């Protein structure tokens, strides 16, 4: 999948979430912080499935840019399982990024 294709997929998923009414405006409340901290210890099935979905792209890539990486749990999971690829996560919420440290 190309970079453009992955951006289109991400936009599709965001629009789907908005239409279902599940988009949050804040990810730094106590429940969300606990969710992110648990994601570092116990990856969600969706994270594992995402890796399988991205496997062809990951095997050919040297650099992956995750825009809107949240706390970075998914990015870190993928990076640990794909050491030959450099991962960079960008997130505007500093509170979320501090969870990854």
Write a structural description.
This protein has 101 residues and is mainly α. The protein has one domain: 3-Layer(aba) Sandwich (Rossmann fold). 61% of the residues lie in helices and 10% in strands. The chain has helices at 3-20, 30-41, 45-60, 73-81, 94-100; strands at 63-67, 86-90. Strands 1-2 form a two-stranded parallel ribbon. α4 links the parallel β1 (63-67) and β2. α2 packs parallel to α4 (73-81). The longest helix is centred in the first third of the chain and has 18 residues, at 3-20. It is globular, with a radius of gyration of 14 Å.
> Strand sequence of the main sheet, in spatial order?
1-2
Distance between the termini: 30 Å
What is the tally of beta strands? 2
**Total of DSSP H or I helical runs spanning 4+ residues:** 5
Average pLDDT confidence is: 81
Q: How many discrete domains?
A: 1
Structural class: mainly alpha
Cα gyration radius (Å): 14 Å
Q: Which CATH class is shown?
A: Alpha Beta
CATH superfamily: Vaccinia Virus protein VP39
- Strand fraction equals 5-15%
Uncertain ranges: none
SSE topology string: HHHEHEH
Keywords:
101 residues, mainly alpha, Rossmann fold, 5 helices, 10% strand
Walk me through the topology:
Elements: H1 3-20, H2 30-41, H3 45-60, E1 63-67, H4 73-81, E2 86-90, H5 94-100
Parallel strand pairs: 1-2
Helix pairs in contact: 2-4
What is the compact description of this entry?
The chain is mainly α and 101 residues long. The protein has a single domain (27-100), classed as Rossmann fold. The chain is built from 5 helices and 2 strands.
């Amino acid at each position: 999948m190309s970079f453009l294709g992955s951006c289109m997929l991400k936009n599709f998923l965001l629009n789907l979430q908005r239409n279902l009414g599940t988009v949050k405006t804040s990810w730094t409340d106590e429940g969300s912080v606990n969710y992110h901290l648990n994601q570092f210890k116990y990856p969600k099935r969706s994270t594992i499935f995402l890796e399988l979905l991205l496997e062809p792209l990951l095997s050919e890539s040297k650099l992956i840019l995750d825009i809107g990486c949240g706390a970075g749990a998914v990015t870190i999971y993928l990076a640990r399982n794909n050491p030959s690829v450099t991962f960079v996560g960008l997130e505007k919420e500093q509170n979320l990024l501090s969870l990854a440290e």
